[in-house]
Each structure stands twice: as structure tokens, then as C-alpha cells.
Amino acid sequence: MIETPAIDYGALSPIIALVAGICVVLLVGLIGPRGRRGLSSALTLATLAAAAGLLVWQLGEPDADLVAGALRSDGLSITIGLIVVAAAALVVPLQLRDPAAEEAGFGETHTLLLGSVLGMLLLAEAQNLISFFVALELLSIPLYVLCGSHRSRSRSLESGLKYLIVGSIGSATLLYGSAFIYGGSGGATDFTAIAQGIGADLADDPLVLIGIALVAVGLAFKVSIAPFHQWTPDVYEGAPTPITAFMAVATKAAAFAVFARFFITALGPSADQWQPALAALAAVTIVVGNVGALGQDSLKRLLGYSGVAQAGYMLTGLLLGTVKGIDALVFYLAAYMLINMAAFAVIAVRERETAYGDDITAVQGIGKDRPALAWSLTISMLALAGLPGTAGFIGKLFLIEAAVAGNYTWLGVFIVVGSMISLVYYLRVVAAIWMRPAPRLAPAMAGASTEAAGEPGLPRRTGEPGRTPSGAPSGGRCWLVLGAILAATAATVAFGIVPSPLIDFSAHAGEGLASMLGPG
Amino acid sequence: MGTTWYLVLSALLFAIGAGGVLVRRSPLVILLCLELMLNSANLALLAFGRNLGNADAQVFAMIVMVVAACEVVVGLGLIVAMYRRRIPLDVDEARELRG
Asked: Which fold has domain B3-98?
């Protein structure tokens, strides 16, 4: 008689719901006409809603080890899972009129998107080297495809191939590091067993030391921490905008979750030895990201570099190894999700309405005729810079407070100085929105001359269906997209004024790791 | 023969793979070099597993092979799509997006 293993279906339910949704969306995409955007989007949203509901239900349940300890459902994994699901749900309406999704097919695009979400949920739960690697790849491989999904644009293909190469270098480095940790800890793959296997002193075992360094490099590639960030602006610029938005936010959230779990659970006893190294990385990242963003004219590149800087801020919360630090990290990730989704959505809308692509010209002078978009982008930029009255400010406040409490005051100073530099480029966008006149050339005429208008020989962007020749918004202005933008912006402001719901939410994350963390 | 030599070999393979990714210009060769990096990790895993008498490493290595295959499929797909668009298959030429 074989003893059947106990399966905790309750804690696995968000993952089961996603897998079922992936199958349904893929099959529905295969049946029927190719342009079935409505049905496919509705099913995707329903899947995400089901996963979100189950995650919220699990938030009240006790923490659980799943699948023989390969996964762990706790406060950290559930909060990060909710952030990822919310990001995906905001991306779905954005894809409704996306040329990339139209070209690749909505069923396929949404299947890949859900697959990536599944990988992110698993990554946030992973507490074993094997599930860690598999979840990371499950997250990445659909994203490589999605980046290259706009096949008629050579930039999209280029960004897909670039992301694949750089991402695979990161994965391979991480895997090689895992092998050394496995060897150095006496054959342990579980994070807790690794902690017991390697003890508190890293310096006496070169194998483990090499392993940890390689794993950290692999993770740094994924969350774009300098000096492993060079791919970020390129890939962000080339990928279809909705995908960039999803990638920027959700990948970071999931990778930071496993980053925190790995370093705190597996390497907790030796915290004082790896903290200075990560602190140096965080400081370099803040400087490199903010300085790199200064000269950018492409809004997507600008947000790419800004994302590098934000990764530096977030790394500060992680490396402190305190409950406060993890809470601040998750709060910041949630705020960053709302802000970034709104900003990228505005860029995507302008990209479709004008021939300027994602160049800063596309948002010049939109204050007059598109006030809703203008205000959303303005608030997003100010929130990214950390101005009071937005969730971005509260997030930075918490990070700095945690850094001071964790004896890393100098990193707090770096965050402040970085935010000051960042005002230069964020305010440049705000100035373009409100103080510059709208570009004089009719967008359709400019289309031929601007580089962003696509390669010669292709149908011009302005000539695509659903768009009037003048480049002005066609009759079907997408209210769903505008609704998503306004909801994200409203939440940014609301959580900036009344942050307590988001604070309670992020406090779950610290609780999940509390037994491993110091107080403060 | 101890585990050390296997580790030395895996380190060499990893270095050759990483060097190849940096130096070579054809995306196909770069994909090959990425495979080399993953397989060097497999070799290290198996050497450790054998040394420690632990089977987890073999499970890990099998899973890595599956994942590596998936990565190559996507990579080759992208390369074919670029070829059909008549984009030169040379990563030095693919620099419309300048870092």
C-alpha cells in the first residue's frame, strides 16, 4: 500500500486556478476567429480575479509548506502574488488595442502573460533551489516571447533576442551558483537545510562563497541592479509597451520576493557578512540609474533607467534583514506597481495616437486637450520622484526609516540624494506636458520623418486600421484603458494621503518571514 | 579521482561559455554557448551529488535539461523570425536599441 502524500489544496488553489485559466484561454484562442479579443480578455481577467480572490482568502489562513517543502505559502508570497496579479489585470485592458497582441493573437498573448504570472507566483513561494530555478524560468521564457511578439517591428524582435540572451546568462550564472551552494552545504536544496548546512561563517568555505556570489549576480540580472542593468533600457524600449509595463513591475516584485526569501532564510545566520556587499550594490545602482536617466528622450528608456534606480531603493529594504525593511520593500513594490502601470499606460495610449512613438514629444502639450492623461502622467512622475501626497513618498519614507533603524543611515542618504537627482528628469516630463506647445507638424506627416514611426516599407503606424489618417484618436477611444489609468492614479494619490490600508497589507509580508528576521 | 577535477572541468566549460557569449557575433553560436554554461552547471551538480551520495542533484540536472530545451526553442524561434524579416543575423548589427 502506497501512502498518498498530503496535498494542501487550499494553499495551492491560486496556482491551480491559474493553470486551469491558462488551458481555457489557450483553447479558446485556438477555436474561432483570430481577432477574438473580447472573449480572450474577459477569460484572462476572470482567471486573474479568481487567483486574486483565492490569494486574499489564503491571507487569513496559516502559513503552509507545500509540495514536500518546495513551496511556501506565507505573507510574503501572498502579498507579492497579489501585486503581480493586479499588474497583470491592469495590462489586459492595455492590450486590447495593442498592435503586438493583434499580430500575435490574443489567445496566445494572454496565455503567455498568464504563464508568466504563474511563474511569478511560484517564484514568490519557492523555498528550494530546484523550484527557485524552475519558477524563474517559467517567469522568464514567456516574457522573452512576449517581448518579441511584435514580429513586424525589428526592434521588438531585437529586444526579445537581447532579453533572451541576457536573461539566460543570468539564469545560467544563478544555476552554477546553486550547484556550488548544493555542494558546499552538504547536499541541501531546501533553503532551511542550506542555512543549517553552511553555518554562520561564509569565509571558511570558498565553495559556498562563490555560490552565493553567483546566485546574487543571477538575481541582480533579473531585477536590473547595476552593474548588471545594461539590458534594461534596451529591452524596455523595444518590447511592446504593455509588456514593458508588466515586465518592469511584476518581474521585479517576484524576483525581489525570492531574493529576500533566499538571503533571509538560507543565509540569515551570516547576514552581517553579505549585507555590506548588497549595500554597495544598492548605492551603485541608485547612482547609475538616476544618472543614466538624465539624458533620455525616449520615455520608455527613461522609465527603464528609473526602474534601475528604484531597484536600488528596494534593495535597501531587503538587505536590512529586518521586519521593517521587508514591510517597506513590499509597500514600495505595491506603490511602484500602481505608479508605473499608470505611466506606461499613458505612454501606450500616446504611442497609438501619435506618430512619435514613446518619444517625449508624444506627450508635449497634452495638458490642454487630454487633461486626464496629462494629470495621470504628471502624478505618476511626481510619485516616482517621491513628492508628498503620493504613495511614492510614503514608500520612500518607510525605506529611509527602516534604513536608519537598521544602522544603514548612509544608504538612507543615498536614497534622498538619488531622489533629488531624479527630480531633474521627472520634472522634464512634467514640463513637456504642461509648458511646451503641442508639436506643430500634423502627426501623420511627421510620421514619415521620425524614426519612431517604424521602418520604411512597412505600413505606417498612422495607416493602421482603427486610426484616422490625421493620427487623431479614432472614434473608439478605449474607455477601459482610461479607466485603468485613472484607477491606478487615484490609488496612487489615495494611498499617499491615507496609507494605512497599504501598510496593513505590506505588514503581512514581514510576518511571513518574522521568525527569521530581527526586530526593528 | 576526486571531485576536484570535475569541478575544474565545469569551471572551464562555464568560462568558455561565458566568453563565447561575450565574444561571438552569431546569435546561433551565442545560444550554443548559453547551453554550454547550463551544462557546466549540470556537471558540477552531478559531481557534487555523486560525491555526497545524494540523488537530488540528478533530479535537478534532469529539470535543467528540460528548461534548457525550452530556452533554445524560444531562441531559435526568434532567430527564424529575424531571418524572415531579413535582419542581419549578427548581434553587432542588431543595435537599433543602443544601451
From this structure: Helix Hairpins (1.10.287)
Nearest to A77 by CA among A85, A87, A88: A85
C-alpha cell at A286: 541608485
- Residues B13, B39: Cα–Cα separation, whole Å: 8
Q: A310: closest CA among A331, A346, A336, A284?
A: A336
| DSSP-derived secondary structure letter, A148 | T
- Across A40-44, A57-61, A473-477, B79-83, least confident range: A473-477
Residue pair A293/A302 in contact by the 8 Å Cβ criterion:
yes
**Chain B residues in contact with A189 (beta carbon < 8 A):** 56, 60
**Are A106 and A95 a contacting pair, CB within 8 Å?**
yes
Pairing of strands A64-66, A71-73: antiparallel
Instruction: Give the three-state DSSP class for A237.
Output: helix
Q: Which residue of A has its CA nearest to B53?
A: A187
The DSSP secondary structure of A405-422, one letter per residue, reads HTT-HHHHHHHHHHHHHH
CB A461 within 8 A of CB A447: yes
* B65 vs A385: CA distance, rounded Å: 44
Q: Which of B23, B71, B73, B98 to mutate to test the interface with A (most CBs of A within 10 A)?
A: B71
Domain segments of chain A: what residues?
9-439+466-516
Report DSSP letters for B61-94, one per residue: HHHHHHHHHHHHHHHHHHHHHHHHTT--S-TTT-
Q: Are the beta carbons of B96 and A158 separated by less than 8 Å? A: yes
Q: What is the domain partition of chain B in residue ranges?
A: 3-98
| Res. A419: pLDDT tops 60 | yes
Confidence of residue A200 (pLDDT cuts 50, 70, 90): confident
B99 pLDDT band (50/70/90 cuts)? low
A178 grid coordinates: 546553486
Q: What is the pLDDT of residues B21-74, one digit of tens each?
A: 999 888 899 999 999 999 999 999 999 999 988 888 999 999 999 999 999 999
Instruction: Kindly identify which residue of chain B lies nearest to residue A298, measuring between CA atoms.
Output: B97
Contact A510, A520 (CB under 8 A): no
| Alpha carbons A217 and A231: distance in angstroms, whole number | 14
Residue A360 CB-half CA count within 13 A = 22
Q: Tell me which chain A residue has its CA closest to the CA of residue B31.
A: A165
> What does pTM read for this prediction?
0.90
Q: What's the rounded Cα separation, in Å, for the pair A371 and A434?
A: 10
Among B29, B48, B86, which would you mutate to test the A interface (most chain A Cβ atoms within 10 Å of its Cβ)? B48
The gap from C-alpha A457 to its chain's centroid, in whole angstroms, comes to: 35
Q: Which amino acid is at B32?
A: L
- Find residue A73's DSSP bridge partners: A64
- Residue A497 has, within 13 A of its CA and on its CB side, a CA count of 5
Backbone φ, ψ for residue A257 (5° rounding): -60, -45
